[in-house]
Specification:
Elements: H1 2-16, E1 38-40, H2 47-64, E2 67-72, H3 81-92, E3 102-108, E4 113-118, H4 128-144, H5 148-164
Helix pairs in contact: 2-5, 4-5
Length: 165
């Protein structure tokens, strides 16, 4: 009798346990909800500017097939921006399957972090040193002046220029 109750209790607990994540990048705090080519969770962009950037990203995708997404977040949810970027890129499936040609620009103003996450298919034009230079010389100088929208727009333009070379 006691064994039957123990098994029943274990089955009850096992039935209510959360299912494990299907992939390693799904583990961790919840990610922002994808809202399109520009997901401005931190509200750094006016609707007009977000629309302009979104149209530039749509033109890039129509011309090249490469997907480029901008994400601003109010918080990295306790994660390193590198890990957060990989989780978002894979969860949102940025880039074409098999080509892995997605680009994700992440801005986390509260943590003062910026990152350009690049799929393997675009690592030649957008190597780590190139992305670091875009952040350092194009985006951050504008951010330091309090010009967040201008920094994001200039960063988008710099990335697109590198892809188009």
């Amino acid at each position: 009798m006691r064994l039957g109750l123990t098994i029943a209790a274990l089955l009850l607990v096992a039935g209510t346990a959360p299912a494990p994540a299907a992939h390693w990048w799904e583990a961790g705090p919840p990610l922002p909800v994808f809202a399109g080519r520009v997901t401005d969770e931190a509200r750094l962009l006016s609707p007009a500017v977000a629309g302009q950037i979104g149209r530039r990203l749509a033109r890039l995708e129509a011309a090249t097939g490469h997907q480029f997404v901008v994400l601003t977040v109010s918080s990295l949810r306790g994660q390193r921006i590198e890990d957060f970027g990989i989780r978002v890129g894979r969860s949102w499936a940025i880039g074409r399957k098999g080509i892995n040609d997605g680009v994700l620009l992440i801005v986390a103003p509260n943590e003062r972090r910026v990152r350009i996450e690049v799929g393997y298919g675009l690592e030649t034009p957008l190597s780590d040193p190139v992305c670091a230079k875009i952040i350092r010389e194009t985006i951050l100088p504008r951010f330091r002046k309090g010009e967040m929208a201008e920094g994001i727009g200039a960063g988008v333009d710099a990335v697109i220029a590198r892809i188009d070379e």
